[in-house]
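Our preliminary data section would be incomplete without showing what the modeling component actually yields. Below, a chain of 187 amino acids is followed by its predicted structure, encoded as tokens that our downstream tools consume directly.
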Amino acid sequence: MRRIGWLIGMLATGAAAATPSGTPTGWWLEEGVNPPGYAATAPLRTDANIDTVVLMCEAGTNGRVLQLQLYLTEEGPLLPVSRPDAEIKADPRAELVIDGLAFTAEILFADAHVVLADSRREAWPALSPALVDAMGRGTRLTLRFDLIGDSSIDGSAVIDLAAGRDAIAAVRRCVAPGMPNVAEAPR
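Predicted structure:
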């Protein structure tokens, strides 16, 4: 429940700046943890049902991995807002474009969110070092989705990476060699 609780807590306490419409701006980090386990932001714009984009440090079998997680505006699958009742195709795909450099990613549907990953570390979906490096240097990330129908882009979101450089760098430290794997921590 930590993943849902942090978002509710952040929005309820007003920890993130907001636009006049109430949409959070900039990036915010997990508080009270060093290094932080996540950095989150709202898309600058989207035509899909995406509320929050999270760079998340997850515990894998033999270490931690970074994932890009999407939290949606309502329960159900990731969909274009113009087609809220559409059915997801059997092989949805995503493309992450950072300042013109494209990465193909899997779309994995979890209980309360969607995971985007362009590589695997053992069985764990993960962001590749090349993608994370590009995020750390980039200015704009465009998420493009082929979710329904033919092979065409039917949903997208734009993320301000320049505003998140420090946040991205902070979360990257959680996967550094020597960091304890929370999945292996004694109880």
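The longest helix spans residues 2-13. Helices lie at 2-13, 129-137, 165-172. Preliminary results of this kind motivate Aim 1 of the renewal.
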